[in-house]
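Summary of Year 1 activities. Much of the first year was spent building the evaluation harness for sequence design. The harness presents a backbone, in tokenized form, and records the residue chosen at every position. We chose the following record to illustrate the format because it has been used consistently in internal testing since the harness was completed.
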């Protein structure tokens, strides 16, 4: 028999899974509605905004209204971030298949991993810091991703494993849970990083994170 505390933990887990699945669905709808080019960036920013508030500060506002408010909050700037990721990804993937030597292919695979790290962390950086320049956001994202490389590798492996399981055994529900594991993993990593970077007095806003990141080597 489950204890009362055990049932509460199960209920909390299932509630969190539902919340992540619904956020995943909102991300898919927004990305598709924006024809990917105009939807990927704003949808990813809104997802990162909700997850950051939830995991780092414990906020759980109404999901739909909060999500679409975040989509509109920095629409063009987040869309530009999405354009950079899409353009860079298209160039790198083309080079992977078009390269005539294994060395060039390997170099482009490494570049694809760097782009993956940047894409995973740049939206949480945009949400949790006061940086507005795109190059600073991407620089801070790379600093966090490679500064916590062991966690990044673990998160990547967990995400790849979860994606394989979904595609292999539960393909119809993949659109509802495809981003659950990577989004949660990135949210936990950035929560830890930002909590270490800010002081107790500044923790509610997280704005000191950007200054700390710049001091530690993000290029200006």
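For this record, the design step produced the sequence shown next.
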């Amino acid at each position: 028999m489950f204890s009362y505390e055990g049932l509460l933990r199960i209920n909390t887990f299932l509630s969190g899974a539902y919340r992540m699945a619904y956020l995943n669905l909102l991300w898919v709808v927004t990305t598709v509605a924006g024809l990917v080019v105009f939807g990927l960036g704003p949808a990813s920013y809104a997802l990162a905004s909700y997850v950051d508030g939830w995991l780092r500060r414990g906020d759980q506002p109404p999901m739909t209204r909060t999500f679409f408010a975040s989509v509109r909050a920095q629409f063009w700037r987040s869309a530009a971030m999405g354009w950079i990721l899409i353009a860079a990804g298209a160039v790198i993937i083309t080079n992977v298949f078009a390269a005539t030597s294994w060395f060039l292919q390997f170099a482009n695979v490494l570049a694809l991993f760097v782009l993956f790290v940047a894409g995973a962390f740049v939206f949480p950086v945009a949400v949790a810091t006061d940086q507005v320049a795109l190059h600073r956001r991407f620089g801070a994202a790379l600093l966090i991703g490679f500064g916590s490389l062991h966690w990044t590798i673990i998160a990547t492996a967990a995400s790849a494993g979860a994606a394989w399981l979904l595609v292999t055994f539960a393909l119809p529900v993949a659109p509802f849970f495809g981003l659950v594991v990577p989004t949660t993993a990135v949210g936990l990593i950035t929560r830890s990083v930002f909590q270490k970077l800010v002081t107790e007095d500044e923790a509610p806003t997280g704005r000191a994170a950007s200054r700390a990141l710049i001091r530690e080597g993000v290029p200006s």
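Residues 73 and 205 are 17 Å apart (CA to CA). Quantitative recovery figures across the full test set are reported in Table 2.
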